[in-house]
Design goal:
single chain, 317 residues, mainly beta, Beta-galactosidase, Chain A, domain 5, eight-stranded antiparallel beta sheet, 20 strands, disordered C terminus
C-alpha cells in the first residue's frame, strides 16, 4: 500500500549531489516514486518524473550544461526580465547565476509543507549584478513535490532596496509532448494576446482551443488561473495552476527557428511546448520592503480528466 503521509519524512526524501560542473543539484522524491531535480545553477528544475519514471519536462539533446550558458529545457526562471523587453540579457540573469540553499526561509502556509518533499533556494544579487540592474532584492524559491506527484514552484521577491523597482517574470516551462500536432491548449480561448511574431501586436484568440501548425510565440493577457495542455497521443493532460501570474506565454519554435538554435535539435520542436505562468504585460512594481509571490503548480493527469472541471479544480487553489 506504500507509506502514509503521516510517516513520510520529507527531509529524508531530499538528496543533494553534484553535477559534472561541480554544481549542487537537489533530488526530491515522493513515496510513490515520482521525482524532481533542481539545479542550484539558476534555481532551475531540470527534471520532473511521474511514479512510472516518465519524464514530463523536455530538455534538448543539444542543451549546453556549462555556465554561463542557460540550459535549454526544464523550467528556467526568467527574472528580472522576460525575453528582450528591457536592457538586460535575454530572460534576465537569475537563470545564469548560482543560487544557495536557504536554511532559514520565512515559513509558508502548512499546505505548502505537509506531505511534501521540498527545497528552499535563495538568490541575492552580486556586485556584478547590481552594476547592470541596480536594485537590491532577495529572491526565495520553494520547489516542492507532493504525494500525488504534482510539482509546485513558489517564488517570493522582496525589495530590500531604498527605492521602488519593477520587473517582469516567467516560469519558462518546457513540457514534454508526444507530437506537437496532437496537442491542444484549453483555457486561453477568447483572450487577447501579444504576438511576438508580429512586433507584439495585440490580437484576440479566435479558436475553441489552441492547436499547432506553425511557429507560435505569444503572451496571453489576463489568463485564467487554470490552463490545460492536452496530449492526445499520450492520453495525458498537464494541468497548470497559477497565482500572482496574470499572463501565459505559449511558445513553440517550429522547424525554421529550431534549425537556427545551436542548443536545440532540428526536429525537437515536435516533442516540446512551452506554456509559462508569467507577469510580463504589466511589470510587477515593489516599493521598499514589499514582497511579491508568484506560484505555479503543475500536475499530469490521464486525459479522461474533463476540461469542464478545470474551473472547479482551480477554485481551491
Amino acid at each position: 500500500m506504500g507509506h502514509s503521509a503521516a510517516v513520510w519524512d520529507s527531509r529524508a526524501a531530499i538528496e543533494i549531489t553534484k553535477d559534472w560542473n561541480g554544481i549542487d543539484k537537489v533530488v526530491l522524491r515522493n513515496p510513490r516514486g515520482a521525482s524532481a531535480r533542481v539545479s542550484l545553477y539558476g534555481g532551475q528544475v531540470t527534471s520532473w518524473r511521474n511514479e512510472q519514471g516518465e519524464e514530463l519536462l523536455f530538455t534538448s539533446s543539444k542543451a549546453i550544461f556549462k555556465p554561463p550558458k542557460a540550459v535549454r529545457g526544464g523550467i528556467p526562471i526568467c527574472f528580472p526580465q522576460f525575453g528582450n523587453c528591457g536592457s538586460l540579457e535575454q530572460h534576465g540573469f537569475a537563470r545564469n547565476k548560482i543560487w544557495t540553499i536557504d536554511e532559514n526561509s520565512p515559513p509558508l502556509s502548512p499546505k505548502d509543507s505537509q506531505g511534501k518533499s521540498f527545497i528552499d533556494l535563495l538568490f541575492k544579487p552580486s556586485e556584478e549584478d547590481l552594476k547592470c540592474w541596480p536594485h537590491s532584492f532577495e529572491f526565495r524559491l520553494r520547489v516542492s513535490l507532493a504525494a500525488d506527484g504534482s510539482l509546485t514552484l513558489i517564488s517570493r521577491v522582496r525589495n530590500v532596496n531604498g527605492k521602488p523597482f519593477s520587473f517582469s517574470f516567467a516560469y519558462h516551462t518546457y513540457l514534454s509532448v508526444s507530437d506537437i500536432s496532437e496537442v491542444r491548449i484549453e483555457g486561453l480561448e477568447t483572450l487577447d494576446y501579444l504576438d511576438n511574431l508580429c512586433g507584439k501586436e495585440r490580437f484576440t484568440e479566435q479558436g475553441d482551443a489552441i492547436t499547432f501548425e506553425s511557429e507560435v510565440d505569444r503572451v496571453y493577457l489576463s489568463a485564467p488561473n487554470v490552463v490545460a495542455v492536452l496530449d492526445h497521443e499520450r492520453k495525458r493532460t498537464y494541468v497548470i495552476k497559477k497565482e500572482g501570474l496574470p499572463d501565459v506565454v505559449v511558445w513553440n519554435p517550429w522547424e525554421k527557428k529550431s534549425k537556427a538554435m545551436a542548443d536545440f535539435g532540428d526536429d525537437e520542436y515536435k516533442q516540446m511546448l512551452c506554456v509559462d505562468g508569467a507577469a510580463i504585460a504589466k511589470p510587477v512594481t515593489l516599493k521598499p520592503g514589499e514582497e511579491w509571490t508568484g506560484r505555479l503548480e503543475l500536475s499530469a493527469v490521464p486525459s479522461t480528466f474533463c476540461s469542464e472541471n478545470l474551473d472547479l479544480q482551480g477554485r481551491g487553489f
